Amino acid sequence: MRNDVPDPVPLAQALIRCRSVTPADDGALEVLQAALAPLGFACERLRFGEVENLFAVRGAGGPHLMFAGHTDVVPPGATGWTADPFGGEVRDGLLYGRGATDMKGGVAAWVTAVTDVLARRPDLPGTLSLLITGDEEGPATDGTVKVLDWLADRKKIPDCCVVGEPTSKVVLGDTIKVGRRGSLNATLVVHGTQGHSAYPQRADNPIHRLVRVLAALTATPLDQGSDFFEPTTLQITSIDVGNPATNVIPPSATARLNIRFNDLHTEASLTAHLRAALERDAPQHDLAVVCSGESFLTQPGPFVAALERAVLAETGQAAKLDTGGGTSDARFIARHCPVAELGAVGATMHKADESTPVAELRALTRLYARVIKEVLG
Fold first, then answer.
1. Considering 116, 136, 267, 314, which one is annotated as catalytic?
2. Annotated catalytic, 72?
3. pLDDT tens figures, 110-161
């Protein structure tokens, strides 16, 4: 393990000091462009809607390794901070600030790792690129997904991609995310016939029908998990009637639910499952489904093996291949090329006093430098 890589802290501080709460950029991409251009990267600023994105590329030919990340952050919140959320303060060995962990620190570590690798080997073969968005923490409609379409139109899709999300759980490198569950939100509206609660025979209570539908949907697990995924979960998140009266059977009842699903399901199969339950107990209904991303899995192979070798060489431990957690922009990249997520420990992301140990940030830089050499040779 080397200790002589450049220090990523100044670049991380410069990024943290940009108040880039989604979709604002506040100069964050300018900071990155200023760091990348002297290294020979051609930088393209891509604006879609209100979102600024950056694609930077250096080299030619294969293999083409891309790093994907984001410089937008969630709001700091009103209370709980002992440091300026946008100050980039280093105190007692910790770098504080919104984005220190998720994920300006990771972006700074990768750019610093690239600086180190190119200084040692300016003739590095293959292609290096970065896709940095300002829309990961928001709707994710004008960021990574749009840049990928732009790259596909120009035949610039990479061979593989590392996403720098803070995926480590306890110590740096203990987890490599090789997939993510899908996420589906559904709104179920059951219609009945309004009436007096003292004369239920003259009405059709939609609440009773909705309760039967929800009971059926939650009675049996959707699956027991698969080789790389935990079991699919279905959670009811809301039941609403909007009935101000105590003696009126309402005309309709609404429920909302979220399904986090593995590779045994798709948006289409789950929609069919929901509709079948409604048809059995509530034939008069409306169903609206929004899927923010299908599940995906990068199968173990040369790319994943290169990441595993890098982690073992730099940390001395075998990384666990994992698919847990929520969604990330990797769900868009998986449509185009093998993708895996490898980054810092995410213990403080989105919290007050978000911070990352300076020593860990430097270790992450060494790890990323090793990844680049393992993938590009």
1. 136
2. yes
3. 999 999 999 999 999 999 999 999 999 999 999 999 999 999 999 999 999 9
